[in-house]
Structure to design on (360 residues):
């Protein structure tokens, strides 16, 4: 190859590499400055942040945003409006849910919360008993570990991430539509989806394929693993932070949830889950328990739901009101027994066949 051609080729490669390096540097600088996942700092005033990624954005929000209280749990908590917590309870709350959250998911985010905000006033935690019999280290989705650890070495996966640059830095600047942080992660269902005629056909499609469990589960079938989960993932934070108020609540699943429990012969085993968790929590003075699972008027009306468990946002507002006035609070073993007994009566007394026959 002619020396002149070689020299020109080398110069072209150098220019190309330099341009690539400069572009990478600009992209990295943009991510660090804007910090759309709040990994390094709090949100910049005026930037139209889009917040729609629980796995990637929750840890940064937990670490760097201003709050005195947190709302934790699964998709059962996504429709809370933090303004309600301010108006009803005088709290500056932040919502950090994980859809389908297991206890370890809750533990992972509480670790960050208490490391960065050790004086947190109140933790509102929605407990889905069906997930508390999982392995103690099970998480719903793989975590982007580089956003959860203290190392900057692996942050290249964040600062040189094409999707982050395009979707969370450039896109918000081109068409600004900032996320309302009071309603962040709000479900996509609009009012027309909360309708029995939407819920039942979808439910029946899965129900008809469900195989009944051949034998009834023993009452204590889930107990051992529930205790492990509580002792490893939840109770350590309650014990380590006696000045923080932990408000634990059980969401009101629809009656179809209990139809599944009947079909799978696990009604008593499921009710026992509520009992085991609640009795463990009643041992702590900084815990309050709210039992919304047996709100009969809510759970037996499928026009309140978009599927067999997810209820209309107005009930999230109602629950905040109940936190304020003490409705459905469980303060003693006797209260607990009353709620569980009532839930058993509802589950066993409902006319499922009449409902199912209408949609067969």
């Amino acid at each position: 190859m002619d020396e002149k051609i070689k020299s020109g080729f080398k110069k072209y490669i150098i220019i190309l590499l330099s341009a690539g390096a400069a572009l990478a540097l600009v992209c990295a600088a943009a991510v660090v400055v804007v910090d759309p996942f709040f990994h390094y700092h709090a949100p910049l005033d005026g930037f139209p942040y889009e917040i729609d990624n629980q796995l990637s954005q929750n840890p940064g929000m937990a670490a760097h945003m201003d709050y005195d209280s947190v709302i934790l749990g699964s998709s059962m908590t996504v429709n809370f409006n933090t303004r309600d917590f301010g108006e009803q309870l005088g709290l500056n709350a932040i919502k950090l849910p994980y859809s389908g959250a297991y206890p370890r998911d809750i533990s992972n985010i509480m670790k960050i919360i208490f490391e960065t905000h050790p004086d947190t006033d109140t933790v509102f935690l929605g407990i889905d008993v069906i997930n508390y019999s999982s392995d103690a280290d099970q998480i719903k989705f793989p975590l982007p570990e580089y956003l959860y650890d203290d190392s900057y070495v692996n942050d290249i996966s964040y600062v040189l991430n094409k999707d982050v640059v395009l979707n969370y830095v450039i896109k918000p600047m081109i068409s600004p539509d900032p996320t309302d942080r009071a309603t962040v992660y709000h479900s996509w269902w609009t009012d027309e989806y909360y309708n029995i005629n939407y819920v039942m056909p979808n439910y029946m499609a899965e129900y008809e394929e469900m195989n009944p469990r051949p034998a009834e589960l023993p009452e204590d079938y889930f107990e051992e693993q529930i205790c492990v989960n509580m002792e490893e993932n939840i109770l350590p934070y309650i014990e380590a932070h006696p000045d923080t108020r932990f408000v634990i609540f059980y969401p009101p699943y629809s009656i179809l949830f209990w139809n599944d429990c009947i079909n799978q012969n696990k009604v008593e085993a499921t009710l026992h889950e509520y009992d085991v968790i609640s009795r463990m929590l009643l041992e702590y003075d900084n815990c309050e328990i709210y039992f919304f699972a047996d709100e009969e008027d809510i759970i037996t009306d499928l026009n309140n739901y978009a599927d067999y468990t997810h209820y209309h946002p107005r009930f999230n507002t109602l629950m905040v009101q109940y936190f304020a006035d003490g409705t459905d609070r469980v303060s003693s073993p006797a209260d607990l027994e009353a709620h569980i007994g009532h839930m058993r009566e509802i589950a066993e007394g409902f006319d499922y066949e009449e409902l199912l026959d209408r949609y067969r």
